[in-house]
């Protein structure tokens, strides 16, 4: 198979480089097109391998945000210049709906190459929400895709609810949910299950200290636990704009000896911190997927996650943890106690389920989808 990968957000994180590297190990021929905005991004997350071509293209300008049709036409012309023999590709994978999907649609119209498109958070919550005049075109992008990929069950449902009914009817059967994978370091040291070693329950929060990640509600849980003499201790890994306010709230509320703000921690130290904790808690208001939940599960931690966000829908309620109303202190406390009652089984379930999120397995899911589409042509 020979696949053209269109990946506008390639340099933003290492998720795509890990996916493409694993696909390369399966002998997939890949040409990766990465439009960039400045020279400093050239060769960011560079990967190499036989049968893999990676093209960074210094093409993006500030005005491209406002001239969408011009941007995707420009990208198509650049791809025609950079990539030889476009007709030799079996498939195009557009890794965003707007920036990459629009270009993939134009390539199909001109060269007849089928494509799949992945829908991301900014596609729906920013571009689709505000670029009303582009919606008819984006509907065509979805309509003409051979497959539409979402990162979570919840996000698929939310997106389909935004689209016109006739469009939903035409794309629902070709819609797939394929999650991100986790770094192999989380899975390297095999764990069977954890046990709570003493009367103190060690909670851990890992994420940005901002309004969305909602550490404030977790701190309110800690404050309420003082009234009932529940022995909770909270480790906080992360930094952010609300750090000083959250520390001040902790100090003023009289439980600073029960919370440790670690700040930004390395991957190695974060794994160590997870191993020293009992329950992972992250009641974000908005969470497209939430890889931190899966990382915690890999270390045997049951999780508390937000209802109708992120990983909700991947697991049966109470199997690896519990969903919660992100503003409900009482519900979060009840969920902590329900986890404690069945801790070892949930820990074992969490470890087992986390293994499905390794990059090799995720890449194999994509390979099967690629083959399915190509064989149906």
From TrEMBL:
Coiled coil: none annotated. Residues 190-351 form the Glycosyl transferase family domain. Transmembrane segments: none annotated. Residues 72-184 form the Glycosyltransferase subfamily 4-like N-terminal domain. Keywords: Transferase. The keyword Transmembrane helix does not apply. This is Glycosyl transferase. Pfam families: Glyco_transf_4 (PF13439), Glycos_transf_1 (PF00534). InterPro entries: Glyco_trans_1, Glyco_trans_4-like_N, Glycosyltransferase_grp1. GO terms for molecular function: transferase activity. It comes from the Bacteria. CDD domains: GT4_PimA-like.
